[in-house]
Amino acid sequence: MSNRINHPSVSQKLLVYLLLTSLVLVMLHVLFKYISIVIFDEKHGFLFELSNRLDLNDENSLPQWFTQVIFLVIAFLAYLAYRFTLVNEGSSLWLVIAGLGVLLSVDDVATLHEFGLQNLHNTFFEDMKSTFLVNSWILLLPFIVAGLGVLIYKAYRLLPVRTYGLIAVGGVIYVVGAVLVDSLTNNFLGRAFIEQGVMGGIEGGLQLIGSAVFLYAIADYLELYHRKQVVAVRNLLKPAPRSKAKV
């Protein structure tokens, strides 16, 4: 039986904080891209570098660090769910999700997908301009949709309806931002602010929202169905109280 509570839970507060932080990051991204590109034509060194540090799609930026942390937390919480869940109740699914969290976190800093996309483009679309329908994501889209579909189906079969629904919503939002919006951005190449500021903000914002909802799905599941184990882990991680030295 789940332990539901009336006041906002820790997982609900976490979701609110993540969404508010995501909104702030998107606003900063668009604002400083506008200032750097439109007002100063990317000729103001400090503002140019500052806009890059706040760029949702720059691997060396604050938003990317934030996204990396989200994926690491997803991996950690999914691993806890794996340890707390019986084999016939979806433990293997949680282990797969934990692995995906680690992989996406590494990809955020190692740009593995960009390396792969570049090689695919050079192989299949050499000397062709990237558009919405002519880009490497189109080649990978069937596999991505199939993988997401399998994940959602497994969640539907093994997890509570609430958790399954949140995982499905978070996963779809993330893929729409990472794949579809990124592909659509190719139609705006050469229009710097639209490409980097507006479309980059939409793409990165959807990825942040999707990953936040996905993280909330796991945290909410643990809070509702494994509250005692979570409290035990939290108490275990707490530093031991310091004993007062005797004089």
Question: Would you write up a description of this structure?
Answer:
- The chain has about 250 residues and is an all-alpha fold.
- The chain has a domain at about 70-225.
- The chain has helices at about 10-40, 45-55, 60-85, 90-110, 110-125, 135-160, 160-185, 190-225, 225-235.
- The protein is globular and about 55 Å long.
- Residues about 1-5 have low confidence and may be disordered.
List keywords for this structure.
247 residues, mainly alpha
SSE layout:
Blueprint: H1 10-39, H2 45-53, H3 62-84, H4 91-110, H5 112-124, H6 136-158, H7 161-185, H8 192-225, H9 227-237
Derived structural class: mainly alpha
Q: Describe the main β-sheet briefly.
A: none
Strand content: under 5%
Average the pLDDT over all residues and give the rounded result.
88
Stretches where pLDDT is under 50 for at least 5 consecutive residues are 1-5
> What is the CA–CA distance across the termini?
51 Å
Helix content: over 70%
Q: Give the H and E element order.
A: HHHHHHHHH
Individual helix count: 9
Oligomer: single chain
- Identify the overall geometry: globular
Number of strands: 0
Short précis:
By secondary structure, this protein is mainly α. Helices cover 76% and strands 0% of the residues.
